[in-house]
Amino acid sequence: MADSPDSGPGSDPDGSVTTLRDGALLRLTLTRPDRRNSLSPSMTAALITALTAAASDDTLRAVHIRGAGDHFCAGSDWVSTNAGDRRPRTGDLVRRIPHAGHRVIELLSTIQLPVVCTVRGWAVGLGCNLALAADFTMAADDAVFWEPFLARGFSPDSGATWLLPRLVGVARARRMLLLGEKVSGVHAEQWGLIHRAVAPAELDSAAEELLAALVNGPTAAIGLAKQALHYAQHATLPQAMTQELFNLELSCRTGDFKEGLAAFSQRRPPDFTGR
After folding, report:
1. What does pTM read for this prediction?
2. Which of the residues 36, 150, 155, 232 has an alpha carbon 20 to 30 A from that of 1?
3. What is the spatial distance between Cα 251 and Cα 265, in angstroms, rounded to a whole number?
4. Res 56 pLDDT > 80
5. Which CDD domains does this one have (predicted)?
6. Which fold is adopted by the domain 16-80+95-215?
């Protein structure tokens, strides 16, 4: 998929999600830099469409999500969503959000492709949770991760109360969710919130190195390992090991498994094809 001609920065007040097919890598860019890439309803819908299509595309081997300009994502655009005098019907959030922000988080967590986010500047609210739901998040050391829900007078959503305690523990989750503590890229790495923080000038090259390793990895086995990790978050140890067995059976039937064994016996690097 090539960039569409009208997907450049500033061309759409509601923003866009620019998609670019780079070999076996799908790059998704949140493109609304004048609003710190806050997600309009149309951008959220575009993310859902792109990730849903990627989930069934056997030619893809990794997904990369980034923000245009100086910031990653300032979260959902609540200001424009609630603009105007017309009040939504009672239950509007309960009806709408499961098919919007919540669906994005579910797709990131369950798609059997590795997902990498690169974060510059602010990652706020839903934007923060996008980064937490990715398999690997690389951030500039001066980036800021912030869950400002209570500071705005409403309770957390988009998976924050599930993701944060599992990543950083309940005590630090309380600091971020109940006190609204902002976390720098450096501390996010130290806490285990993200994969790695680097100097801003090194972010792109570090992310590309990671993406190259994932694109050239055993894609089916990576997807099955990701699925098992997700399943194990709510399973007992015996249940998790049973799931591992089923996934092992599947991964041992791939061409990449045969290549991995051959490479090991021949003492050479494997040449995985993702099949």
Report:
1. 0.88
2. 36
3. 19
4. yes
5. crotonase-like
6. 2-enoyl-CoA Hydratase; Chain A, domain 1 (3.90.226)
